[in-house]
Structure formats: structure tokens, C-alpha cells
Amino acid sequence: MTAQSLADGPAGQALLALERGQDAHRWLAALVAEPVMAHPEEASLFEGAPAIAFTLVATDQRRALSVLDDHVEKITRSRLEAAYQRMGRGELADKREFDLIGGLTGLGAYLLRCGTADELLREVLRYLVRLTQPHPDGRPGWWAAHGPTGPGPAWQTGHGNLGMAHGIAGPLTLLALALRRGIVVSGQTAAIDRICRWLDRWRCGVPPRAWWPEAISQADHARGAVHQPGPSRPSWCYGTPGIARAQQVAGLVLGDRARRRCAENILAWCLGDEQQLARLGDVSLCHGWAGVVHTAWRASRHNDQLAATLPRLLNRLAVNLARQPPDGRGLLTGTAGVMLAQRAARTNTPPVTQWDTCLLLHE
């Protein structure tokens, strides 16, 4: 249902227009032209009622938001009930249960953005705290039942996902940002620490020349090491930039200067390593140059070394945009996301729409 997609639909163009102070009516009308999709198994931050609500919260559409927030609450409670039932059966999770793009972390990101449902957000946080409890066999509680892209021979016993979009970096960031906002549940700090220590465990290389794999297989877990010669694509969604930013936020919230500085130094090395940057294949916000720029810009607000990388990164984004513009106009993989990232970094001004809350890159 592309019309109601925060990733690919008119929501991205609406947010861009609002960010520019322009009339967004055309795009908002397209967003709500069809009946709202609110099925608990299909709706998410990036699809259906929550996606529409996320876009409208930047407007004055209060009546529509009230109806949409009712949908979001029902979706969230249904997702929580299903997750607890799954836990009760002792089964592994599907990453879409908890992740940012399709799961409860994404719904929590919307609740943090709207700021009117703190108790429901606390219920999501309690679930995430429980998710961090390890399985009896030592695998983390967020170990997913299938592979990063679905079932496959290499992933028959599931995987541990490290990324921001589909892995544990997303829940880590939500737990930390909520704590920073004063929204606290029992065990929250301990859960943040558990996730951080797991990310430390799977960090490769010696800081600052270090990186994280995208995912851990059962074979990796059993031998205690990943068989990967070097860093993967340095993206927001799966790569070192998103994971480093998550740990920077955790360090800031916990007052852990060592963790914060380590994350910032690794990110700085990544942003200056041509071998890693050469792996970027497009300019998108999700897995391309725009995502790297926006992640670096947000992180740079606490680190002058990172700020110094921005002019060069913005230039690389512009060159690649001219060479190979996106096919679509949406937020995650289209021109809207690229323009929003460029605008924030060039003006060095936090987005008035807080659009990057959907990426958990806000403060």
C-alpha cells in the first residue's frame, strides 16, 4: 500500500514541503486518499495508520490524529500481546516483532515523537527490557528465527541482527532516548548495558579502526567470531554508522564518556575510509550517502572531528546525486530523504518536523 508508506509514499514529499515551510496539502491529501490500513500484523511505523500519524503530527490536523492515535494504540497493544505470547511459548522472535521498520521499536519511536502516550510507550519499553534477557542457551533474547532477509540455508537456526533498521541498535537507541526524556521503566539501564556489551563482544578490529558485522549466524555465535574479512557497506540501516550512533547516544545518556568517545572515533574512521565509502551504491537515506550524511551530522553535534567530515561528505552526496538520482520520490530510498538530509546538514539546523525520529537519529 504505497500511498500509506512512510518509506516510499507521499509522506516523504509532505514532510519535505513542511520542512521548507511550503504547502503540503497535495501530498497530505494523497496520503489519506484511501481507507486507513490498521491491521496489527501489517501496520507499522512505515506503513498504514502509524505512518500517516507520524506525518500528520507535524501539522495541525488534531482531529485526524486523534482517530489515528486510537489505531496506533490498538496496533501496539495487539503487537505486545502477540510478543508476550511468543515469549511464553519459548519461541524465537521474528525481527519484525521488535525492529524499527516493522516492529514495536518503530511504534515506540512514534509514541516518543507524539509525546502524548507516555504510559503506552513505557509498555513498549518494558517489552524491550524483557527482550534483552538471554535465552537459556546463551543467545540474546532478540535472536531472530530466520535470516536477515528470510529463511535460507545459512540461517536455519536464525541470526542476531546488529543494525539500526532491523536489529538491536534500534531498540538500544529507543531505550536510551526515552531515558534521556525521563521516560523510565524498571531494568531499562541494565537492558541498555546488556545490548552495549553484546555489541562490544561482536565488534571487529581495534578501535578506532573497528567495525561491526550486519548479522551474527549460529555458527558465528558457536565459534565466537565472524568469518568476514572486513567492513560491509557503511549505511544507516545496517552498517557501522547507525550502530556507532546508537552507542554514542547510549554513552551520552549514561554519562559513559569512554563508550561515547569510542563510538565517535570508530565513526570518524569509517567516514574517512575510502574502502568503506566505496561500498555505497546509491544516495538514499536508508542505505546510501544521504543516510551517512544525516547520521554523521547528528553525531557531529557532539564531536568536532565528525563535524569536520561534513563538507566533504555533502560534496560526495551532491556528486553522486547528479550522477545517479533516485528512481523514486519517497523518504527512505527517494529524493525526499536526500533533500531532507542535505537541508539539515547544510543549515546545521534540527528539522522542525522532527522527521528523523523515524530513523531514531534525533536528540
UniProtKB/TrEMBL annotation:
Pfam families: LANC_like. SUPFAM superfamilies: LanC-like. InterPro entries: LanC, LANC-like. This is Lanthionine synthetase C family protein.
